[in-house]
Amino acid sequence: MESKIWKILKAIVYGIFVLVFVFVTLKLFFADFIDNKSSNLEENVMKKKEVLTVIYPDEIGEFEPTFFNPTARQRLVNVYEPLVVADKDLNMKPSLAISWGLLDDYTWEFRLRSGVKFHDGSAFDVQDVLASFERAARYERSELKDLLSTIRSVKAVDSATIQITTLKPDPLLLQKVSNVLIISSDEVEMPTGTGPFMLSSWKFGERMELIKNDEYWGGDVPFDTVVLKVEMDKSLRVNDFLNGGADMLAFVPFDAVAAVKERGFETVSVPSLEVQFLLFNVNSSLLKDVKAREFLAGVFDKTALSRELGGFALPVDQFVSDGVFGFNPKIHNFPKSDVGLLKGKTLQLHLLKGLDVLGEFVRKSLKDSDVNVIVSYLDGNDFLKSLDAKKADMYFFGFKSDIGDSVDFFKTVVKSGADFNVMNYSDAQVDALIDQGLTELDARRRRAVLQELMEIVVRKDVLGSPLFQYETVFATNNSIDFVPRIDGLIYFNEITVK
Questions:
Q1: Number of domains forming the structure of the chain
Q2: Residue 77 in 3-state DSSP?
Q3: Is 65 contained in some domain?
Q4: What's the whole-model pTM score?
Q5: Spatial distance between the Cα atoms of 436 and 102, rounded to a whole number of angstroms
């Protein structure tokens, strides 16, 4: 239930973003990505800046390394580090582990980095790894429990080696390990990690200050101090940035991008890992026939919807974004088909309150084909009840591939009995393919399985209509260069000074 509520809350948050879109009336263009390479590479000299200031829209409740929500992770990943870390393209690279490999289908071995110190001066060792995995799996408020549920044991082999044994072959083990932030096994009063920055002060609801870790194993960092300001009010947040209150504005409101550009600031954007879509109830009397679902899948003008949403939503044709493992490049626009049996019928669409622009888009699109839609905008609790009842013909949904792998969508939304299988869909062959996607260790074979699954749910059985994915927008002044990551995280040591 914890996982289910969390995903509903994510859908609500993204729904609020969509509400903002309604007010965007001007055509906005995407800025080119900025090259984050230093112009002084020939001399191999890092340019420095004493203070970097970033404005965020949300505060975190506490500095807890087992939290998995995006708001907390934005802060945590600059103070704590995992054994392996995802790069900007979601490929795994060494962090506190210098190497790793499979001993057999169930056993992974990691060799730890030597000479690493925590912010309090204590040495990093295997006991810290064991303590970190224990907390991530057992702490009552940990948001990593479900993610780590396939791990049987974590044990030390020697002073520099650990082994992780899984309950079944797990091709996603590295992605899971990358989300376990390593803490000190000693009891410490202040948050103590091994990362490039350490927590200096925190005035809740206003600002957090990080200072550089002079003993960082990864070398020097470009900033002595990083100030993280929090302003939940959109207008105040934007005005603070426009008036010189920060070097970066994180997650720029879409209706503020034009003003930011007009004042001469740089904007950079990147597609998010969140895809928005309609799901069809295959047990609905009106949608049992796949031909009815084929009509719905092909009727929507996604490009027009993107324009209506202000230009910061990209049309999509499948349930995960490009860059997610298992994305199928062969799936393109769904062909249009005849309205058929749906002509003159009335469908029920349920979605969260605040998504009026989307509800109206669906209603008007189908009205043009003589199909009526009753749109119900529900609060979070009522929407959850509707999902459990599975009585609506269509649901508007959003799903974020947190670990960058499409199997997460299939096991959560498509598999028989899954928490969010609101389509009443069940297929033994599909379930078997999902199980294979969860256990196949050969990357090539596994990619083929996931792409086959996407073909089935999009083209053959037509479980819904993928609509769009959001863009994440950042703004910077002319003192820094910043290249956004597909996961939306900001690593301060990846920012360069001009």
A1: 1
A2: coil
A3: no
A4: 0.88
A5: 18
